[in-house]
Amino acid sequence: MILKKVLTLLVVVLISGVISIHALANNGYKEIGIEIDGSKLDVVGLLVDGRTMVPMRAIFEKLQSDVKWDQETQSVTATKGSTIVKLTIGDVSTEVNTNIKTLDVPPMLIEGKTFVPLRFVSESLGAKVDYDASRSIASVLTTGTDHANSNANTPPKELSVEPFVVKGRVTDRQGKPLEGVDIIADNQLARDSYQEAFTDEDGYYRIDLPQINTTWNMISYYERKFEGAVQKFNLTSVTDRPFGGNKGAVRDFVWDDINGMVIIQYNYPDEEKWPEFSLDQVELTLTPVSPLIDGSEGKVIKEISTFSPDGPGLQSVPIAKYEISARWVPDGMKPIPMLVSKFATNQYAQSIVTSDFSAVVGTTKRVAIKVSFP
Q1: CA–CA distance, 308 with 263 (Å, rounded to integer)
Q2: Exposed end of the chain (fewer CB within 10 Å): N or C?
Q3: Contact 68/87 with Cβ under 8 angstroms?
Q4: Helix H segments across 43-167?
Q5: Cα–Cα distance between 83 and 41 in angstroms, integer?
């Protein structure tokens, strides 16, 4: 009877472990292995918006820090020696010894567990973090290090050209490194023949090319989650030209195109009392109510719509969450306020808030709205 109970308990534990791993594997995030001083943890990190997030207690305990959780404020305080780190779920502002720091990705709940940014936490507590892109492993070194916030002002490495190797770095418009960017070396002489790698937490990648006489072209893809939707971008190399494999190359990428479109439609009424007007006489005002998709600060956009093959509207709008209003501004007349509505509804108002940029062709993204007279 005792043996039967033990076996039953073992089966339950094994099943629970399988369910937990399966759940994490299906949450949409790329899994990253974690090593602490050479020993692999029995938990995985998750790549979220270019940053490796790890289960809170697993990393704090391995970094030999005391952890206190405040359920009311949804915050965690970790203490190691004279260093105190405080983080709050969903808040990019954090404290290190009363100094306010800003995170790229805030602590968050995933599958019921609290995940915190690996590099920030580790380096705040005096550890060093390296990333092995070929194995998708983040390594934390706690012994003999004093690297708190060491990557904040680290200059980029000088990369030299090597035969049959292509390497480089990927950054955003502010020069911040991007992790998890998909880099592809495409063989120009053989169809569907390519080599692939992902950038590490410092934005670097390296691809060892087969030693064959061929030409390669570089392609890059990046995904960023924003307002609950995953937006995909195609990045262009700073040096956008093919190279010979026998010579090798350094090819950096910059994520500088964060734009989408705002397309407008007008339902022309049958009643003759409505004035005739053209959609290129509609002025849109877009007020950002969130940071831009790359985390930078947005600005108010006030422009008159234009016609393009994609439709009337604004053709180059940084992706963000906007409050949108509209006016009719015909020549020689006083501007007339219009009502606006999301494209899929008829709920018109003086202004609407939307972040519904959706892909239409390739990586082209747009928000569609409707305008009407009161």
Answers
A1: 10
A2: N
A3: no
A4: 56-62, 118-124
A5: 24
The DSSP bridge partners found for residue 95 are: 86, 100
pLDDT digits (tens, 9 = 90+) for 299-352: 999 999 999 888 899 989 999 999 999 999 988 889 999 999 998 888 999 999
Taking alpha carbons only, the member of 276, 274, 243, 259 closest to residue 364 is 259
3-state SS, residue 6 = helix
Indicate the residue type of 317: V
Q: Three-class SS of residue 114?
A: strand
How many angstroms separate the CA atoms of 143 and 122, rounded? Answer: 12
CA atoms within 13 A on the CB side of 181: 32
In 225-242, which positions are buried (b, 16+ CB within 10 angstroms) versus exposed (e)? ebeeeebebebebbeeee
The C-alpha atoms of residue 117 and residue 38 are separated, in whole angstroms, by 20
Contacts of 74 (CB under 8 A, 6+ apart): 88, 89, 90
How does pLDDT run across 5-50, given as a tens digit for each residue? 433 433 333 333 333 333 444 456 888 889 888 888 888 889 888 7
147 — alpha (psi -120 to 50), left (phi > 0) or beta? alpha
pTM above 0.90, yes or no: no
Amino acid in position 355: S
Query: How many angstroms separate the CA atoms of 140 and 115, rounded?
Result: 16
pLDDT tens digits for range 225-276: 888 788 889 898 899 899 999 999 999 999 999 999 999 988 765 555 656 7
Note every long-range contact of 35-42, with CB atoms under 8 Å and residues 24 or more positions apart, other chains counting: 35/137, 35/138, 35/139, 35/140, 36/62, 36/63, 36/140, 36/142, 37/140, 37/141, 37/142, 37/143, 38/139, 40/137
CA angle 25/31/36 to nearest 5° reads 130
Rounded Cα–Cα distance for residues 301 and 318 (Å) = 10
Q: Are strands 30-36 and 39-48 parallel, antiparallel or unpaired?
A: antiparallel
10 Å CB burial of residue 182 (0-12, 13-18, 19+) is middle
Strand-pair category, 364-372 with 259-266: parallel
